[in-house]
Each structure stands twice: as C-alpha cells, then as structure tokens.
Amino acid sequence: MSEKKHLVYIPSILKSVQEHMTPADFVSTESVRKYVQARMLRVTSNIRIEVVYDDANYTDGRKIHLNPYFAAEHTRSNFDALLMLLGNAFHETLHVIHTDLEVCHKYHIGYINGKKVLYSSGEYYLYRKLLSDVMEDCAVEFWGKREYPGTLKKSLEFADIISYNAGAGLQDMAEEGARPIEILFRAFVIFGVMDIVPEFPPEYASMKTLFEECRPLLTAARIAQKTADRCRIANDVFEIIRPVIDKCMEDGEKCPVFQPIQPSTHNHFNREMQNFASFRRARLDQYDLKLDMEKLAEAAAKDEYDRKIDRRYSDQLVMSISNLQDDGLGPFHNTIEIEYVQANLPLFATYREAYTRRVVRLTPKIKLLLKGLLSVVQREQDDTIRNLYAGNRYIQPFRADKKCCAYRKALSDEADLFLYVMVDSSGSMGVVSDYVKDALTMFYEVCKKMNVPITIVAHTANANVVTIQTLVDANMRSGENNGIEGFEPRGGTRDGVALSCAAEYLKFRKEAQKIVIAISDGEPWHTCDLDITPELLQIAKSARLRPTDAKEFFREYSNYSAADIKSVIRSREIHPIGIALAPTMELANLLNYNLRALYPESFATDIDHLAKKLAKVLEKYLYD
Predict the structure, then answer these.
(1) Beta strands in 23-71 (DSSP E)
(2) Which phi and psi (to 5°) does residue 463 adopt?
(3) 3-class DSSP state of 602
C-alpha cells in the first residue's frame, strides 16, 4: 500500500504557529495529551490508563478526564499551563491508585463493609458523597506530595496554589451572600488540600465551631490508608454537621456542590502485585519537564497547524456544497435542500466507549478479514519477485545465493487509493442497523491497519431536506474517528443528491483512484414535492409515462431513476459501486435488479457477509 500522505511542514510556518500559539491552544493539542498520558503511565507502573479531554476533571478508575482549558485559564505561559495540566492529571491518577471506587460507591448508597449507614435515603446521600470526595482528595494530596518526588510533586503543588488563588476566600464568599453550608465545605476543602486553616468571617462563628470540631477528623482522613477508613471518617463528619444539613433540607436548599456519582468500577490492577515504591525511586526522580518542553512545543505546533488546515478544509467543503445547492442539483432535485453534518471530534468521544466494546467483540473477525487482505499483498509481492527473476530485471547484481541484492520497485505497485462509503440511513435500514455498524466497524479497522484512507457518511431524506452525516472523516487527522456508533436510521433517501455531495467531497482528495461504495437496502422511501417543469415532462414522456402520471412518478420514484443518477455520474466523473443489502441472500438478489440500472457495478449481499463483501472491493482495487 502507498504510505499515508502527510503535510510537508515548512519550518518558518511552524515557527510562526509556535510563537503565536496561546496556552489554551498548546495544552489542547493531541501531542500534549499523549505526553501527559505517558507521564501518568509511569505513575501507574505502565498499567494501562487513558487520558481523555473533557469539560471536567475526574476519573472513573479506568480513564482520566481532563479539561485542558481550565489548566490554561489562569496561567500565562505554555510551561505553566502544561505544569498545571500535569498536576490535575496527577491528582486524578492518584485516585486511580489510592481510591477504591467500589467502596466509595457502596458508601454513597448507604453501606460500609456490608453494614448499612444511617441517613442513606433521600437527599442525605448528596452530602455524604460530597464529604467522601473531600476525604479522598485530602488523602491523595497527602500521599502524592509525600511519596512522589521531583516535577510530579511540584506540578501538584502548583496546580493546588493556582486553583486556591483563583477560588474565592471565605470572606469573599460571605460578601457575595454564600450560604453557611457552602462556606463550611469550602473550609473543609482548603484545609484538606492546602493544609491551611482558613479565617472565618465574624458572622459565621457557628460554622467555625463546627470546623474546629471536624478538623481532627480531616487530619485523620489525610493519613488513612484505606478507602473504607476514609468513608467512616466522612460518616463521622456527617453526623457532626447533620443539624446544619437538616436545616438546609427544611428550607428547601440544595447541596452546595454535587457531581454525578461515578461508575462503580474496581481499579483494574492488583496493587499488591505492583512494587510502586521501588518504581518511584528508580524512575520518577529522573523526570524533568523542562528537558521535554522544546520537543513538545514543536509537536504541539504541528498539531495546531494540522487543526488550522482541517478548519480550512471544512470551510471549503461547506462552501462547495453550498454552491452545489445554489447552482442546482439537476432536474430531478430542483427543490432539494442539503444539510451537511460535519465530523465532530468531541462528539466522537461520546461514542468511544461503545465503539471500543464493539471492536473488542469483533476482533476475531477483523483478524480474519485482515489475514485475507495480507495474503493478497503477499501474493502480489511473490509475483513481483518471480517476474523480477524471470525477466532478470534488477539494479544490483545477484549474490552467490542467487538472491537479488536490491531489486527495483515492485512491478505491480499498490494503488493510490481512497475509499468513500455512502450508507443509506433510511427508516427501512433500522432492522439491520446493528449488522451495518458491525460491518462498518470491521471494514474501518481493516482499512486503518492497512493505511487505506477512508471516509464513511450516512445519508437520509426528510421531505425536501437531504442530510449528509459524516461518521468517519479521513481528513480529520486529530484523534480517533469512532462516529460509526452515531449511525441512526430514519427518514428516506435520495441517492442522486448523496452522490453529488460525494463528488464535491472527492474534489479535496489527491489520490489517483477514488472508489465510492453505496450501501442500500433497496427500499428507500421519501416524500418530496417537485416542481413540474417542461424538462421533467419531456423525461417522463421518454420514460413512456403519461404526463398526468408524471407528478406521482417523480414524487415516489425519482430517487431511483437511472437517468438521474447516470447524469450525476457523467457530470461528476465518479464511478460508484452499489451494494444491495438484505437479511437474506435471496432478497438481496431481488433488490440487486434495482441497483443494476443505477450503478455501473453492483452486487448483492446478506447482512452476515457485508464486511466480507466490502473487503473484497478493497482487495479488487488494492493494486493497479
């Protein structure tokens, strides 16, 4: 296969991008995310965790969610923003190591080590959850600053100081009209994380008394080694401040801070089998952030340059489709409006977990498909070498063992290939939607492993509006494209408009061979009011229809008119391949008769063999 084409980076452009890059741009790049993830893997002794950019900082025991913009909001340099992001990530990683989330979850719903906790019903659990979160933060901050040396400790302290300075003090909160319970919890956080005894406003003397009573418990929570012990301490604090909580509930006031309860997941490694102490001494002392900053800045500049190119590409594509709509889509589509839904990387993140589960389930089938394609590659290489020997076509002489020292480029080169998969997402596809997702997932994973660029879109029609939704976009180079989970059948379809949009998209691809694969169940439906023009009447007459029947014909069947789609193919110079999809092969063969009149090349398949048929298309066009 031809290697993946990357942009040729011009040093002067990268230097300019690097100089004008803001801290928010810097820390939100993919290079920084991977860098932070690699550093956190050191903390967990290379036990796999994933750092995900999100709108909040938290962990569920398997993934660490970070808000990079929060790290850059209160810092002025790239280095400070990175240091704060690293501190936030380190805090969440400490939860992965030191917090047993299942014990926390059981405490939230009212149990500690199998014993029921009083006042676990109603809204009490919100306050108990908040208290347990405070106790866990106290503990992980204490153990992180005590046991981890060097930059990790400095990053944690730096992030704490920045967050403390950015937050409101107790006096400021009182002036802004904060409730007593809010000031009390804020005091708990300040003491637990910063080890600072806050100064209470004079009018909140009762809250100060409660704080002093709870202060020994907060100190005990910091050094408690077990999550169950910290939950007991949280319960003791709850009993002390319960009169204030009861007063809030009687007044109809809500808990001051509430975040959704995180999933009940075990930490997915056995702490007893990990020698964390020796790892800290051997590895973490050698870690210096400044040594990596220059290299990381260059990588972040490349990512930022890529994002600007992606943005420019997206703007051009939207403009191109808008011009297509304004200029007209042909006589059969003269009243159609196009809604183009672009690939959205933050949206893909919502599908990532479900997509990962689907990939794990389909891994054996993916390996079989990949094995078949690799056998084709091996066969082509064997044929190439055989032809080289037979024709004695080589650059360097043979060695004594009769092997060519440096034979020239393969006689049958890999094709410069691009795949554009166009999936019918009409309502009739709902029955087979899960099978379609499986097939698209397998095909996408195979193409990704073979370095074949691929774009997958779903198209649907509702009245006079045709929606083109990008599931996977080969032009989006940042992050992973897992939008296949977003495939939702609804409405009807109009293949002619979808092919026109495909042609506009293919303008931006530089590959020599562009394959368009159209998957349909052969039974799209739609309601579309078309203006009856003289051109349409002439086409109706040539199709041997009575003019009185023309409006009904165009309303129901213009989507699958051979003349319409063939005119699109001729004007756009594209060569689509149609796939008739049905639950059984018998039905698929019947539906294929409709496609034969529409596409130059078409074939039938059932739902169980769709991925294999797609792989066969790739196999056919893999080599010139």
Answers:
(1) 50-53, 58-59, 63-66
(2) 60, -125
(3) strand
Take residue 116 and report the two structure tokens written for it: 């029921």
H or E stretch covering 70: helix 68-73
Q: Are 224 and 233 in contact (CB under 8 A)?
A: yes
Q: What integer pLDDT is reported at residue 560 of this predicted model? A: 59
Q: How big is the chain, counted in residues?
A: 624
d(CA 424, CA 487): 10
pLDDT digits (tens, 9 = 90+) for 55-111: 888 888 888 999 898 888 888 888 899 999 999 999 999 988 888 888 888 887 888
Label residue 477 by pLDDT band (50, 70, 90).
low
pLDDT at 386: 63
- Across the range 179-186, mean pLDDT stands at 89
Backbone angles phi, psi at 196, to 5 degrees: -120, 130
Alpha carbon distance 77, 597 (integer Å)? 62
Count of beta carbons in the 10 Å neighbourhood of residue 406: 8
Q: Whole-structure pTM over 0.85, yes or no?
A: no
Nearest to 183 by CA among 216, 206, 217: 206
User: In whole angstroms, how far apart are CA 392 and each of 385, 400, 412?
Assistant: 10, 15, 16
Q: How far apart are CA 546 and CA 553, in angstroms?
A: 10
Query: Do β-strands 63-66 and 111-112 pair in parallel, antiparallel, or remain unpaired?
Result: unpaired
| Residue 293 phi, psi (nearest 5) | -65, -40
Report helix, strand or coil for 47.
coil
Give the Cβ contact number of residue 162 at 10 Å: 21
Cβ neighbors of 140 (< 8 A, separation 6 or more) are 91, 94, 95, 98, 99
The whole-number average pLDDT for the span 141-148 is: 86
Pairing between β-strand 58-59 and β-strand 63-66 as defined by DSSP bridges? antiparallel
> Which tokens hold the place of 281?
């001494």
